[in-house]
Amino acid sequence: MDTLPLDARLQAAAELIRAGWHADIGSDHATLPIWLLKSGRADRVIVVEKTTGPLEVARRAVTQAGLSGRTELRLGDGLEPLLTHELESVSLTGMGARTMLGILERGRAAGRVPAVLVVQPNDGAGLLRSWARTHGYRLVAERMVSGFWRYPVLRLERCGGPDTEHDPAYDGLPEAAALWYGPHLLRQVHPLLVQELRAQLSRLEPLERHARPQLLTDLATVRSALAWLKQAAPQEPDGAEPRQ
Ligand SMILES: C[S@@+](CC[C@H](N)C(=O)[O-])C[C@H]1O[C@@H](n2cnc3c(N)ncnc32)[C@H](O)[C@@H]1O
User: Fold this and answer.
1) Pocket of ligand 1 contains residue 26 by CB under 6 Å
2) Cβ proximity of 153 and 143 under 8 Å
């Protein structure tokens, strides 16, 4: 395939996307949607940007790639430039979880949140997992990759059944640890997750004696995740591949 490789973060997102029409929100350089078209993971894409500078960067990249015929570029806030029910699948990558939640909440009020969401927040993935559980989405796949930080990438799918708040991904796991650190990543005993948990433990433990309530809650969540991993995989070495 004649296209630039994606960095690990966007590659992980791309691998969780397969769609006829797909929209990438906050696309900037449009590297992800261009790769989706070139790799055949999407047939057509909509690139959404809230400011003109990045949208023009995206337009140039799409033109250079010879993909203008299969790409629409739209200026606007989040899901607002999409028509209701226009498409099934969107991605949001490289933003903070609170920015993403704002986009999803505004989109929900307008009935514009599609059935499939692929999200790569730079922080606070637990906020997105909690949002999904209370808004009828199931967490069907998770990846974790390293870059500037360790990034989780989530695929969420709207659940059609009657029990929309029951997501089997969380069954049998400690609730807060799974919401904050990822049920699939815990089950995979993902080596990057193990590194992340150990880093959090080293950061939080020295502060325990003077701690604020939120810090004590965070520390308890880290310990609960590590305790679950210890009983699930007592011998797992640090550099192991994630379990399938
Ligand atoms: C840090 S860049 C990430 C670019 C790319 N998605 C990536 O992961 O490499 C974030 C982009 O999101 C855009 N953005 C932020 N909030 C947005 C919103 N509410 N609607 C559309 N675009 C937004 C910004 O203009 C910026 O270009």
Assistant:
1) yes
2) yes
